[in-house]
Amino acid sequence: MDEVPNPEDGLDGIELEISELDLSTIDSLEGTALGTILGDLYRAERDITVDGSPLGQIFSSHSSHSRFSSFSSFSSFSSFSSFSSFSSHSSTSWAR
Amino acid sequence: MGEVAAAFGGNAEDTAAEPFKSFICKVASRCNLDCDYCYVYHHADQSWRDQPQRMSLATAAQLGRRINEHAVAHGLGRVDFILHGGEPLLLGVDYLRALCETVTAHAPDVRIRWNGQTNGTEFTDEVLKFCEEWDVCFGLSIDGPRAANDRHRVDHAGRSTFDQAERALRLLSGRGRRHWGGVLAVIDLESDPVETYAYLRAFEPPSIDFLLPLGHHDMRPPGKETSLSGTPYADWLLAIFDVWYHERPQPIRIRRFRDVIGLYLGATRSSEEWGLQPVDFIVVESNGEIQAVDTLKVTYPGACRLGMDVFRHSFDDALTSPMVRARQQNWRTLGETCRRCDVVRICGGGYFPQRYSREDGFQNVSVYCADLMKLIRVVTGTVRRDLAALPRQTERRTR
Fold this sequence. Notes:
The structure holds 2 protein chains of 2 kinds.
Chain A: H1 33-43, H2 71-75, H3 81-86, H4 91-94
Chain B: H1 2-7, E1 22-26, H2 57-74, E2 78-84, H3 93-105, E3 111-118, H4 125-134, E4 137-141, H5 146-150, H6 162-173, E5 180-186, H7 193-201, E6 207-211, H8 232-246, E7 253-254, H9 255-264, E8 281-284, E9 289-291, E10 305-309, H10 315-319, H11 322-328, H12 330-333, H13 336-340, H14 344-347, H15 369-389, H16 393-398
Parallel strand pairs in B: 1-2, 1-8, 2-3, 3-4, 4-5, 5-6, 6-7
Antiparallel strand pairs in B: 8-9, 9-10
Helix pairs in contact in B: 2-3, 3-4, 8-15, 9-15
């Protein structure tokens, strides 16, 4: 195979560690793409396929049903203990 | 089978532990479209020719029994059943209704969530009524505006199918919204990315999945024929990312970006094309054959074949197949280069079929490796900057 890239050449600029998130500050992300994904993550306990199948090339699933998708519903989770306990996780323990 | 196991990266000795939660059921083996990139009809595996045109109700009944058996054995309260093809709507709603009734009648102990994927040409008010009756959620395949769609998605006479697909788009985005999973669009580098996104976005789909064309090292994708180090697909996607990410409010999930961001932020599962989580779905052909993920049909004839069927085998039997075990233990199937790369926890080594070569099986980097690396670098860099800009708790306390 010719010209197969070396993935390590592309690692520059990718920092996989993220600093600890303070969830009380992320309300400013409400309505943004990032805020929606954060909401999905916390609501689904990090399984973003929970509302649907993880199928890739094949189909779009129920995951896109809107019943859980609004940021406002996510915001209301913030009083849950499981949600607030997350904020104390370090980035390293959160990463696999 | 030993040869197959070798292609998948050697022997996966442990028993697969992840039950199947999604069943992609080829209820129709034929399609009324003749898309030139289709992995079912236009690639190495031509096994569709041996399949009955539709799944019989006897097969559907046995499939229901097997799903029920699997769900009970693994304590699954709910599974996804995907009406897939070919084009499932070619069966007509009466037959689809009978099929759903048959499967349900033979799977009394599990809740079945109905999904489907359609090219939209047969998606009518009557189909929508069927969706309402059975709470079916359909994904629609359309590549973008007319010019983009008609470059590939034509019928068997080479005629445009855009008007029919757009009619489905209007129906699903209107009265059918509750039954709309979103859009699948295959990337064509000739199409303007922002124009493509703007067209689809106007219908406010709940999700869009921009698919990388299926290709591998022996069948390179368009734009990567002579070099794999360029990043035309990353550049195409990033043009959309730049618009999508900054739109507010943003109700549309673009799965490719969502998966990268989700995995970067610590998601344990994502869609099949990303990450290293076990694959928890299985394909059932029209004749009841149990097969591995059907996109493998782009690699070599018989790549999906497990030698099993729902009449003689349970889905637990399928879990013991070397191919299934390999997909459940994704780490084992990676080549050395990917194993050494930190980014693998996001890209998962790239989509499985896109790693294939006759010489090394699936133990290559993805044919899209350079694109994935650039996409991940830019997307995660953007997210990282935004998160870093959020006020810290200590700063708030001092105010």
